[in-house]
Design a protein that fits this description.
alpha/beta, Rossmann fold, 6-stranded mixed β-sheet, 4-stranded antiparallel β-sheet, 3 helices, 10 strands, binds guanosine-5'-monophosphate
Amino acid sequence: MKHGDREIDVLIDADALKQRVAEMGEEITRDYQGAPLTALVVLKGSFVFAADLIRAIDLPIKVEFIGLRSYGSRKTTSGVVEITLDTKYPLTDKDVLIIEDIVDTGLTISYLKKNLATRMPASVKLAALLHKPSRTMVDVHIDYVGFTVPNRYVVGYGLDDAGYLRNIPFIGAIR
Ligand code: 5GP
């Protein structure tokens, strides 16, 4: 598909996203058995996925945001992660569900999980829309995973290329 001057291959179309996100929401709803949940949305890439996922979860739910930046170029992360925006309320004693767009090397999530542990939450689970296992550097357990993707740079549904393409309604890869 042509987008501006770029050719983007559709990897996961809007219908498949919708269906899988609904299934993930049902699974999360079942697992927490009515307990209140704090969704921790990792900005910026997760905001579209999170907006759909929380509406597929039938539980009392609060939403917090955390901004993380991992240093490095588009294709590599250094493992140095900075918190650019922190949560508004403490996570102490909360059941926290991290909502992440993609687990690539695993460095960002492993940093976040360590950081969260110091805040004494009741529990921490991870929902990631995408997993790119071919790039794993640190193993992180993903409790709810949407799709496994090949080793290509993916965009759309919240994921960007240099800040753009977050608004395309499917997951694609730039050719
Ligand atoms: P990590 O390598 O630490 O697991 O991934 C860190 C972050 O890099 C992700 O949360 C995501 O924001 C970004 N990232 C990793 N792979 C991709 C990709 O294929 N496309 C886009 N747009 N971002 C990615």
